[in-house]
Structure formats: C-alpha cells, structure tokens
Amino acid sequence: MNARIEGYAIVSDNGMIATANGTMPRALKFDADQDFFERGLNSVDVVVHGRHSRERHRRSDMRRRLILTRGIPSIASDANNRNALFWNPTGATLEEALVVLGAPNGSIGVIGGTDVFGLFLDRYDTFFLTRAPGVQIPGGRGVFPEVPALSPEEVLAKHGLTMASRRLLDAKHGLELMTWSRA
After folding, report:
1. Has residue 57 got a pLDDT over 60?
2. Residue ranges of the domains in the chain?
3. Where does 5-182 sit in CATH, by number?
C-alpha cells in the first residue's frame, strides 16, 4: 500500500486524549489546534477513527471515513453516512477496507481513540502530537495503549518515529506541536 498515514492528537500533560468515559474534555479544545487539525484532515483522502472520536468541521460530512468497531465481522456500510464504512481490523485488512471505500491508494488521517492510534504505530509516516501544558486528566484514556507507562513521545520513538520539528502552535496557551516522522 502506498497510502500516506498521518496521526493527529492533542494530549494533556499526562498523555491523555479523553476522560475515562471516552469524551474529549473542554480543557483539550483550543482554536489553534482545531484549525491545524481541520487543515490536516482537509489534506487527506480518508479519516480513520473509533466510535468515540469525532471531528465536527464544516466539511466533516463530506469526508470518506473508516470507523473501527468490533461489532461487525469485517466491513459494513454506515446507513447514516454514505461516505463511511464500519471496519473491524480483525476481519479485513486496511487495504481491503480502503478498496471497498473507493480509496485504495488514498492518504489517511488517523484521529483516535487509543486503540485506533495504537493500531497504526508501526505504519505512521507522520504523527502530529500537540501538548496542552497544565492540563491533567486523571484516570483518562491515553493517546496510545502504552500510556501512561510510557510517555507519548517514548511510544512514538519506540515504534521508529523521530521528532522532525516542533513549533509553538498557540503562544497564549503554550500549545506545542511536535511533528514525528518515520525515517
């Protein structure tokens, strides 16, 4: 497969992306990060996420997407969204799901949750990790299955990615965007 795979996440100081019930807290929502996130998703052909992950932008309904689920054997259409398929990675490969979706060589933007981010750790070309300083989510859901035992940065490095760049995304809130890339 020649598709480019990118991950997009904002995390708390303790590496969490959501509360224990899977919802993203308001403390992790920043305009600068949302703008970066939306621009990134505008540049990919397919968005991949789990049942709790969402993106609510003006183009969201137009994006092709794969929604990961254990509730089906392999691949099924989404009756509520003609641009979406439900996909169980244990019953069909990513390549098979992309063919059914009509995007066999499409670029991919992975937006979570924890298990979805973890599924692609050895396949990411790039992972965009934004840190929200001062935000703690005790008992929350880590960005990767290995968090909090390891930091998000340690997990990315362990899976062959290196930090290619870092930049201040929002000076007022101290948001730092780190771009991790596969060599």
Report:
1. no
2. 5-182
3. 3.40.430.10
